[in-house]
Amino acid sequence: MIAVVGAGAFGTALAISLARDGRAVTLLARDLRGMDQTRRSPKLDVAIPANVLITDDATQLQSAECVLMAVPAQSLRRVLETHHDQLANKRIVACCKGIDLETLTGPVASISATLPDATAAILTGPSFADDIAAGLPTALTLACADDTAGRALQQTLSTANLRLYRTTDTIGAELGGALKNVIAIACGVAIGAGLGDSARAALMTRGFAEMQRLAGALGADPQTLTGLSGLGDLALTCTSTLSRNYRRGLALGAGDQIDAAATVEGAATSVAVTDLGQARGIDLPVCTIVASLCAQKISVETALQTLLSRPLKEE
Fold this sequence. Notes:
The chain is an alpha/beta fold. The protein contains 14 helices and ten strands.
């Protein structure tokens, strides 16, 4: 049995995709919101298969062979600690994208620190919950430092519409998924402020350079960022209004009201990555500007002027 912790749109979509292939799946919800009765998610217009057990009973995790953690990155450690006894010694796969504000580490490190006897992995890449739930083809990166365990997870979690590519570079996969959210906010700001598609392309390109720069400094293979977990996810998130991070940028750029209650991983990650860059002496101008914009410390006009006034240099 496979368990999914987190009954938001993405966690529910993963549960639906896994169940369509006949697997027994448990979907652990913090708040059932009647999903166990209606067999539908309030965020997805798709029926949940009968072989998905929808529950708020965490003891159900004890019989799972692997557990997918589909909770926000900033909540991951707390959820792992809450369910520590049920998750011990299991294969735990993070399905969130971000850098923890307190530890400045990614989801795999959070799993390893909280559950040292667990096998830690991350599932990341260009994917929207609606597409996965609808059965549309989606390719993702599965990163696990233990390649033998990674191969087993790849077989367990691949479905008719989910094609998983494997890597042992967990740091690179984590950073790709986390940092593309920050760049997506920047691209949304550009479009929201009417700066045009050329400005967005420039931000994507220079932002991608920052992603590779930081990845290399933290011990990842910068080439990992050219795959699904980096460039692939960047292309999707920076160009679609289905992305919450891109929509946050659009609102910032247009001067619209911000929904403070919405989970926008890139906002917190921009702060964490700026702290990382400063601590290691790494130049991350786009990420730093996004952190200031999200905190409303500077205006869009000031952000633009700051980036355009940087010294000229080689690409």
